[in-house]
Amino acid sequence: GPLGSMRVKFNPLALLLDSSLEGEFDLVQRIIYEVDDPSLPNDEGITALHNAVCAGHTEIVKFLVQFGVNVNAADSDGWTPLHCAASCNNVQVCKFLVESGAAVFAMTYSDMQTAADKCEEMEEGYTQCSQFLYGVQEKMGIMNKGVIYALWDYEPQNDDELPMKEGDCMTIIHREDEDEIEWWWARLNDKEGYVPRNLLGLYPRIKPRQRSLA
């Protein structure tokens, strides 16, 4: 009957993306359980988290991240939620994302910029936001006794690289040298080697919430 055809058109992911953008927190909280993977993007690679960050809906941002969506989802130009928060000079959301395992050195594809580079110079909040993000870039691998976390699994391409599993906690022995900026020298358990800094976080990623069949 006609109801059957209506059901087919109901798309929980589209509704999650839309309600995250519109700031409809109640709907976000309800609909997220209907979505197979709340980290999935639309055609441009935009996720619910990107939408909530860009529209400045902080409580939705926090809910999605604590639910365990991919805090490092990249859109079709490599913009992560952290890039979006930076471009709005939203230092509170930037801090929250970094503390939730955002990749500080993730770069956009077209202009190879980190989130720190995206802070809007002519807009309010620029100084605070750029100081925070550039500060994290400068101090990461030095602050917290040099402890950082792998945000992704990594299989070494060369003998002097360390294999990493997402969530591995390691210590940076020294950061870039004359030859190499993108790679840092780390100790993991009793091994030492290079790790790619764009896969590292100051904090580990939050694990996706286990679906309980309520």
What does this structure look like?
The structure is a single chain. The protein is an alpha+beta fold. 34% of the residues lie in helices and 11% in strands. It has a five-stranded antiparallel β-sheet with strand order 4-3-2-1-5, with no helix packed on it. A hairpin with a 2-residue loop joins strand 3 and strand 4. Helix 4 packs parallel to helix 6 and helix 6 packs antiparallel against helix 7.
State the separation between the terminal residues, measured CA to CA: 29 Å
Please count the beta strands (DSSP E, at least 2 residues each): 5
Task: Please trace the helix and strand order, writing H or E for each element.
Answer: HHHHHHHHEEEEE
**Strand order, largest beta sheet:** 4-3-2-1-5
Structure annotation, total helices? 8
Note the main attributes of this structure.
alpha+beta, 8 helices, 214 residues, 5-stranded antiparallel beta sheet, globular
Present the secondary structure layout:
Layout (H helix, E strand, L loop, with lengths): L1 H8 L2 H11 L2 H7 L16 H7 L3 H10 L13 H7 L3 H9 L26 H14 L7 E4 L18 E6 L8 E6 L2 E6 L3 E2 L13
Antiparallel strand pairs: 1-2, 1-5, 2-3, 3-4
Helix pairs in contact: 2-3, 2-4, 4-5, 4-6, 6-7, 7-8
